[in-house]
Each structure stands twice: as C-alpha cells, then as structure tokens.
Amino acid sequence: MEITKAIIPVAGLGTRLLPTTKAIPKEMLPVGRYPIIHHVVEELIGAGLSRLLFVTSRAKLAIENHFDDYSELMLHLELDGSEMKEVSRFDYRKRGVEFFFTRQQVPLGQTKPLGTGDAVAAAENFTDGAPFVVAFGDSIIRSAEPAPLLRRMIASHLAHDSACTIAVYEVPPELTHHYGIVVPVPAEAGATDCQLAGILEKPAPDLAPSRLAVSARYVFGPQIFDAIRAIPPSPSGEIYLTDAILHLIRQGQMVRALRLTPGEQRCDIGNHRAYFQTFIDYALADPQLGPELLAYLRQVLSRCPGAGGQTAP
Ligand code: UTP
Question: Is residue 209 over pLDDT 60?
Fold first, then answer.
C-alpha cells in the first residue's frame, strides 16, 4: 500500500503571534525566502505525498492563493526574461501535485475553532478510509535530505499496521509543559521507533513521563475518526488530537513514535521566540545571502555589551 494523501491543518487563530496574525495567516509568515507553509508542502511532496488537503478558515485565503496557478505572473516573468528556476517550482500541476481545501467551522456561539482534533475530523471524507499523513502548517522538520522523517514514519506505519505513528523529539525537562509528551512501553523505551503506552498533554516537568515531545507530524489510520468522536472536549472546549491518540492506545490499538535523528530539527513559528529563531536559522542557511547575514550578525554582536563587544556610546 502507498500513502498519497496529507492533511494540513491551518485554521487556527494564531493568537500568540498577534498583532501580525490579525490579517496575515501565521502559516504565510516568511521563513527565509518562503512562507512556512511552502516549506511544509515541499516536505510532504518530498515524502511522495501528492494529494494535499488544507483544513482552512475564512481568514486564510492567502494560503489558497499561494498554491493557486498564477499563469499571468509566469508569463510576465518569461517575457521579462527573469530567472525562472525558482518560480517554475510553483507549477505544482506539472509536478503531479493536487491541492484540496475544506473549512473548519467555528460552532455557533464559540469564538474559535475547536482544536487540531476537530480540524482532522473535517477531513474524514477526503481520506476515504485509507491511511494518511497530518502535518501542522506552522512547523517544519528541517533536514539535509528530502523528508527522511516522513518517509520513515510512513514505512513504520505500514510495516506495523499501526493506527497512529507520531514524530517525537527530546525537549529539555523544564519545557515539557509546552508539549504533548509520550510514554513509550518500557521494553522499547530507548528505541528510535517504539510502541506507546500513553500520551499526556502538556505535563508539568515533575509529572512528565518522558522528555519525548510530539512534533507536528503524524500518520493515521481511519480509526482516528472514531477516536475523535469518542473523546470529550477538554475543559477549554478544544478537541485535542492527543486525547484521541490516548483513546486509541486505551483501545489496545498499535500507536508508535519515531524519534527525529540528530540531522533533523523541528522548527516552528508558534510564538515570537520560536519564529525569530526559525527565521534566523533559515536566513543564515540561504546560499546567496547567508554568509553576508552572518557577517552582519557578527558586527551586531560585536557592539553588544556582554557578547564580547564594546558598549555603544
Ligand atoms: P496551534 O495550536 O499551534 O495554532 O496549532 P493556533 O491555534 O493557531 O495558535 P495560537 O495558540 O492561537 O497562537 C497548530 C496548527 O494547527 C492549526 C493551526 O492553524 C496550526 O497550523 N489549527 C489549530 C487548526 O487548523 N485548527 C484549530 O482548531 C487549531
């Protein structure tokens, strides 16, 4: 069996990046030369996924426009004699990639969409009973090769006939309360691909069962939809994907986690600190402008007190 479909939830409000995200979707913020969602889509294509569904909202039309055909722009650049190498990569139809869009509705009387579990539920018809990938639109898995993590996840998912396969990475102990943290079965605790006995949403450091944090990439079987229907909303009214995954584990279904390797880095932009760091990482890696930016940063640092430089007068 082959997995060809992916769901990309992009319907969140992005409140942690206000005021920028009042009118601009978080997923359209640039990371280096591309909006973050562009990096996510390239990662999915690199893993062999060709039918991509965005779970979106009325505030996110810029995402649809970004992936739409723009033949007059292409023609303009061609007539202009511009360098087409980069822009021609946007011609997804030629690359055999299809985009689909559906809306996650905000229920009457609510002020926000009901969370990532609800976003995935909106894609049930699209998946048509087959396994599929979920990739959050505000996180990139950075690596030198194209999408090695997703490729390993898909291979593991199919080999173990799993109901769910999650990407995880190790976080410092004091940060566990920001993430979903997984509990490997004791016999496989040190393995890079391990079965899970549990998963907890944002545990305090002293209650965290491990330091392995869920990392924005999943492979699911169709069982996830019944699990999402079965779980109650959290006290804040959200339907957490984590709770649905815990439900699968409690039902005795095979749920596994794959660790990121040292060559893979999770970069997200969910808050300003993470966004600034991710932008700098990507800008520094830019083949043309990275070295210049590095020289500039060195100059800035040399003027910073406490960084080995002189205090500005
Ligand atoms: P986040 O929880 O990080 O995004 O979801 P958010 O809700 O937009 O962030 P804040 O807390 O308000 O700042 C991760 C991904 O899932 C999408 C988001 O758009 C983001 O890409 N998402 C989140 C949905 O599609 N629907 C939701 O109900 C929640």
Answer: yes
